[in-house]
Every structure is written in C-alpha cells, then in structure tokens.
Amino acid sequence: MQGADRLPGVDEEEAQEEEEERSEASRGSNMVAVMERIVREGHELANHCPEDKSYAWMRGDAFRAELLRAEHALQPFKRLQRRVGTDASWRRSDGRRWKWFRPPQGQMSTAMMRVLREHGYSCVLGDVFSNDVLIGGPSADRPVSEATTAYHVDYCYQRARQGSSIVVFHVPERSRRHHSLQAAVEFIKRVQADGAEVVPLSRMAGAHYDAGA
C-alpha cells in the first residue's frame, strides 16, 4: 500500500537503484577475486591508466594524477605479490622492482614520458599484435568464429620470436572480444609445444638489459 508521502514509482526506482548497487558490488568483488588469482598464479601487473583512451593530449600534472590513481588501485595486489613471493625474481640489477607502463592505445607524449621517468616506470609496447580489437572483436553477439580465432593464433605464432617478443591479446569483455581468450590459450599451447616459455616481462627484460646502466 502506497503511503501518502510517496510519489508513484518511487519504490520501484529505489528497488532498481539498490539492485544496481548490489550488481556493481558483485562485479567489484568478482574483479578482486580475479586479480588475486592473477597474482597467485604468478602473472605480472602493469599500469595501463584508469581508462583505455589516449592520455597523450594531457599536461603533465593531469596525466600524473591519472597514473597515480591507477597505481593506487593496483597497490593491494602488489602487496599480495610480495606476500606470496610471486615477484621474488622480478628485480632490476640495482635491486629495485620493475614498474611497467603500457600506454593506452599505444600513444605517448613527451609530458607522459617525463612523468613516467619521475615515478620510476619503464614503458612497454608489444611487437606482435593481430588486432583482436577489430578483427572479430565487435561481433560478440554471434558465436565465436573458429576461423577468426585461428587467424589470431596463426598471425601471432608466425611473427613471435623466441626470447624477445611481446605478444598483445586484449582482455575479453562482456560485450566484445570473446575470441581473445581462446586465441591466447591456443597460441600459448602452440609455442610451448615448440619448447618455448611464456614468462613475466621482468624476467625477459632482466635477461637482455643491464637495468643499472
């Protein structure tokens, strides 16, 4: 029964808002669980800024604020890495931990580089990218095409070089890029069958560069 001080539809609106809040909290809880699993299974984390958009137009102070916002969000998982010891071998030759930044959309500016150096970041880009964002990416409303998945696997396999390649696969999302996960899994299986390893970036960098130089 509706009280005299309530407007029509208010109860329904409140119920919808509460449901949206519960859904958002559930998504947040699921994301934390996924991130913790990523860390415990030995994967490395990098700063990619809060959003997948270009930051190259920003002035230094504005970019710094965004960089540190993302860094703050990663801190609980960095602490977990140290606790469980998954980053024990990810050190530079001077003893410091590597800090990686992958520029959104691959776009950099002089202002961004200055800020990254100030905060101890190393910038990293991939050298093998099959464009899984556009090739098959927007077609999540249809079943994942085996041919599309095979294309991405073959493209990356043919171009990756053992010991030096960084292969980029994008994270699948609810509405797009559903093929990317399967492509990444199949690619890893194929290179492992050749006797190659898929390793954290810091391990590969440490094998090739004198970080203290």
Question: What's the structural blueprint in terms of helices and strands?
Answer:
Elements: H1 10-40, H2 60-84, E1 100-101, H3 110-118, E2 122-123, E3 128-129, H4 146-159, E4 167-168, H5 179-193, H6 201-208
Parallel strand pairs: 1-2, 3-4
Summarize this structure as a short list of keywords or feature phrases.
single chain, TIM Barrel, two-stranded parallel ribbon
Walk me through this protein's architecture.
The termini are far apart. The protein folds into 2 domains: 37-125, Glycoside hydrolase/deacetylase (TIM Barrel, Alpha-Beta Barrel), CATH 3.20.20; 126-213, no CATH class. By secondary structure, it is mainly alpha-helical. The chain is 48% helix and 4% strand. The strands form 2 sheets. The chain has a two-stranded parallel ribbon with strand order 1-2. A two-stranded parallel sheet has the order 3-4. Residues 1-10 and 18-26 have low confidence and may be disordered. Helix 2 (60-84) packs across helix 3 and helix 4 (146-159) crosses helix 5. It is globular and about 45 Å long.
